[in-house]
Design goal:
- The chain has a two-stranded antiparallel ribbon with strand order 1-2.
- By secondary structure, the chain is mainly alpha-helical.
- The chain is elongated and about 45 Å long.
- The longest helix is centred in the middle third of the chain and has 24 residues.
- 11% of the residues are buried.
- The chain has one domain.
Length: 96
């Protein structure tokens, strides 16, 4: 089983809980298939950003993919030290 499959397996209860919350809040109904697709897209996007940041010498330790209650892919940039954020901001400014 791949790492992503293992992660998706562990997230199944989370996906089901999100579906119940969406239903309780009368949000549009989501399907497990579309939720999994949203999660896969978000994880892939987070992986791409992590790789690009790594090439530039940066890492955001809490960076990860997720999904919203309405099945939209979401990437959490997470938390980082003030020092890292300033270095990243300076690096972007130099290249913008």
């Amino acid at each position: 089983m791949t790492d992503k499959a293992v992660a998706a397996n562990h997230l199944t209860p989370t996906i089901r809980a999100a579906e119940k919350i969406a239903e309780a809040l009368d949000l549009p109904t989501v399907s497990t298939t579309s939720t999994a697709a949203a999660l896969n897209e978000a994880v892939a996007a987070a992986d791409e950003l992590a790789e690009a940041l790594g090439i530039a010498g940066f890492a955001l330790p809490s960076l990860h993919g997720d999904f919203t209650l309405t099945d939209r892919p979401l990437v959490h940039l997470g938390s980082a030290s003030a020092e890292l954020v300033r270095l990243l901001a300076a690096w972007i400014r130099e290249r913008a």
